[in-house]
Amino acid sequence: MATAGVLALMAAGQAFFGKPASKPRTPPVVSKPAAPAAAPSIETVAWETLRPADWDPMKPFKGLDIAKLEDDDPRAQQALDEAKVYWQNAPMNPALDGRGARMTGYVVSLEGEGEAIREFLLVPYFGACIHTPPPPANQVVHVVANEASRNFRTMDVVTVSGTMRVKASQTMMGDAGYQLTGAAVENVKPAF
Predict the structure, then answer these.
(1) Pick from 92, 100, 106: nearest CA to 29
(2) 3-class DSSP state of 140
(3) pLDDT tens string 103-159
(4) Is 17 contained in some domain?
(5) Whole-angstrom Cα distance, residue 106 to residue 159?
(6) Which of 12, 29, 34, 123 is a good FRET partner for 77, with 20 to 30 A between their CA atoms?
């Protein structure tokens, strides 16, 4: 990506990530009909819960006056390069490992468009992983659905529920720090 998009990326990142969370948030418990004893209870997990409270995703951009950077400014490209490495190595929230989780986000298919989708990345905002750089690894969830489906496609909004694991995976579309397995997928809203 040319540095022309760096300024837009930095602005979008600031709008999405804002300030680091001041303290860990416990996701609210959502009631669910009784499940078999072996299944973990399902809790709604907010995106900011995926990152530790003391981790600042905007750290690579600190000290930069975005309003004064030109598209071809080497400082913008350097900050982008630093952000890519910093975000790939983002820390996870170990408290989520093994928990039943429900999340809503956007689909980034890891399979061919038009094919039934079983594995995809769940991302917090429209366009994530389609444009570079992808979000921090602690803001990307690799979903492995129970069944392949043709009912959704890239950038559709879905709600997924399954077992959350702190498990890194690398894909052509971006690095994920979490995996949601045994996932049920509900199509919330088509993107187009």
Answers:
(1) 100
(2) coil
(3) 999 999 998 777 899 999 999 999 888 877 889 999 999 999 999 998 888 999 999
(4) yes
(5) 9
(6) 123
Residue 177: exposed, middle, or buried by beta-carbon count in 10 A (0-12, 13-18, 19+)?
buried
* 47 within domain boundaries: yes
* 10 Cβ contact partners less than 8 Å away, ≥ 6 residues apart: 61, 64, 66, 76, 79
Residue 142 forms part of a structural domain: yes
Cα gap 67→170, rounded to integer Å: 34
* Secondary structure in 3-state letters for 17-47: HCCCCCCCCCCCECCCCCCCCCCCCEEECCH
Could you tell me if residue 35 is inside a domain?
Answer: no
CA-based nearest residue to 57, from 137, 176, 129, 174: 137
Domain with 115 in it: 3-30+40-189
Per-residue model confidence as pLDDT tens digits over 11-66: 445 545 554 444 444 444 444 554 444 556 999 999 999 999 999 999 988 888 87
> What single-letter DSSP state applies at residue 131?
B
Q: What predicted TM-score, i.e. pTM, was given to this entire model?
A: 0.78
* Number of domains comprising the chain: 1
Tell the residue number behind the tokens 């509900």, with chain if given: 186
Q: Where do the H-state alpha helices sit in 73-169?
A: 74-88
